[in-house]
Amino acid sequence: MIVIPTQVARQLAALRAEDLRREADAHRLAMHAAARRVTGDEPASPPPERPGRAPMRLALRLRLLRGAA
Fold it and tell me: Which of 7, 12, 28, 66 has the fewest C-beta atoms lying within 10 Å of its C-beta?
């Protein structure tokens, strides 16, 4: 059996949660664009976008790699 330290497990969970958030955002934007194409209407305002989290994600991956090395 492989034992993963708690800190590494938390970092992996944070990375997975970020991936799920990005997938949900992409899906939401795609549905918004599809609705515009179907109805031919422009929305009153563009869909809200989440702030970028790439730097945080990169930092988590670097910490994870350093801990595993």
Answer: 66
Report how far apart, in Å, the C-alpha atoms of 2 and of each of 5, 9, 11, 13, 66 are.
10, 12, 17, 17, 19
- Fill in the amino acid letter for 47: P
Q: Give residue-wise pLDDT tens across range 13-62.
A: 999 998 898 899 888 888 888 877 777 666 555 555 555 555 556 667 77
Residue 47, in any domain of the structure: no
Number of other CB atoms surrounding residue 25 within 10 Å: 14
CB count in 10 Å sphere of residue 45: 6
